[in-house]
Amino acid sequence: MDVGGFRTTYRKIRNEVQKVIVGYEDITDQVLLAVFGGGHVLLEGAPGIGKTLLVKTLARSLDLRFARIQFTPDLMPADIVGTSVLMQAEDGHRHFAFQRGPVFSNILLADEINRATPKTQSALLEAMQEGSVTASGVHYQIEAPFFVLATQNPIEMEGTYPLPEAQLDRFLFKLRVRYPDAEAIVEILDRTTGAALPEAQMVADGDTVRAMQALAREVAVAAHLRLYVARIVEGTHPQSPQPTSMVKRYVRYGASPRGAQAILLAAKVRAVSEGRANVSAEDIRAMVLPALHHRILLGFEGEAEGIDPDDILKAVVAEVAELGPKPS
Predict the structure, then answer these.
(1) Contact 212, 10 (CB under 8 A)
(2) Helical axes 309-319 vs 281-292, angle rounded to 10°
(3) Judging by beta carbons within 10 Å of its beta carbon (0-12, 13-18, 19+), is residue 305 exposed, middle or buried?
(4) Which residues pair with 127 in a beta bridge?
(5) HSE of 277 in the Cβ direction (CA atoms, 13 Å)?
(6) CA-based angle 190:196:197, to the nearest 5?
(7) Please, are residues 64 and 158 in contact by the beta-carbon 8 Å criterion?
(8) Contact (Cβ atoms closer than 8 angstroms) between residue 167 and residue 121
(9) Is 173 helix (H, G, I), strand (E, B) or coil?
(10) Per-residue model confidence as pLDDT tens digits over 276-326
(11) What does the alpha-carbon distance between residue 113 and residue 131 come to, in Å, rounded to a whole number?
């Protein structure tokens, strides 16, 4: 696959998703950037605004195995990864056989992930990071591509278990899904209350997705832009040489190196999706908020004043200058 083929396929997938999903063009693009960057996505928003539908529609547009887990307080790790079951053969011999759980899919929807206990949430950690599962001492590989798209409701927090920082860091992006405006709601009504319901068609398969992921990683990034990413991530730390006033006052811990990886991978996908074979500074700036929002840990004063991490990140981007390439 070349850059032109990537751009064409990307647009086909986006168009199929937008046949069903109304008013979330930016969210749709960011989910696709994460998918082709090989990362996982956490979608945060109130109930009924289309988070689950977005994931289901994406799965329909790709010829991939799809599974859904509804996270509840009584969900157990074995319900996710699978368990060993006693089986009896025709000759009467009994043996244990591993029955694979829903994590053995290509697209996994983890619905309301913050409603399960930390023990169950952690069952996804190895699968998300390593693309594999260990059960009863046996290592099982999950077939690539593998994406976890998780949702959580930020309104009703009673009886929920907020994801720890270690697990949040496994998500390439955290996207906040806002309420649609009145115009979008009218369009939703037109599409969903008539006789014919919109439905996405399959336009790509697993081989195509893997080829697109491989091509995205080959996109060139100039040395001064890699340094630009590093300086932005460094700028989120209050211990950095010249922290912004907001970082120094409100931030307890800044983004990890995994945050820098997330920015650069997503910037590569953004560049090739627009038909370019090299990353620009604008690609990097566009990826800072979704890649670092959940990687900024506020201090007491930031929590007390309800500071939005996005405002902190915008200030960091505004202050960190883009250094041009060194003259040859």
Answers:
(1) yes
(2) 150
(3) exposed
(4) none
(5) 6
(6) 70
(7) no
(8) yes
(9) strand
(10) 999 999 999 999 999 999 999 999 999 999 899 999 999 999 998 876 666
(11) 19
Give the Cα-Cα-Cα angle 179, 181, 182 (nearest 5 degrees).
Answer: 130
Six-digit token string for 312 = 């902190």
Could you tell me the pTM of the whole model?
Answer: 0.89
The amino acid occupying position 200 is A
φ/ψ of 261, rounded to 5, equals: -60, -40
Closest CA to 272 of 203, 209, 318, 219: 219
Query: Are 296 and 259 a contacting pair, CB within 8 Å?
Result: no
Question: What is the separation, in whole angstroms, between the first and last Cα of the chain?
Answer: 33
Region label for 186, one of left (φ > 0), alpha (ψ between -120 and 50) or beta (otherwise) = alpha
Q: What is the DSSP letter of 22?
A: -
Lowest mean pLDDT among 3-7, 19-23, 37-41, 258-262: 19-23
Question: What domains does the chain contain, in order, with CATH numbers?
Answer: 3-192+202-209 (3.40.50.300), 219-319 (1.10.8.80)
Side chain identity, residue 244: T
Look at residues 21, 14, 60, 7 and name the one whose alpha carbon lies nearest to residue 177: 21
The counts of H helices and E strands in the chain are: 15, 13
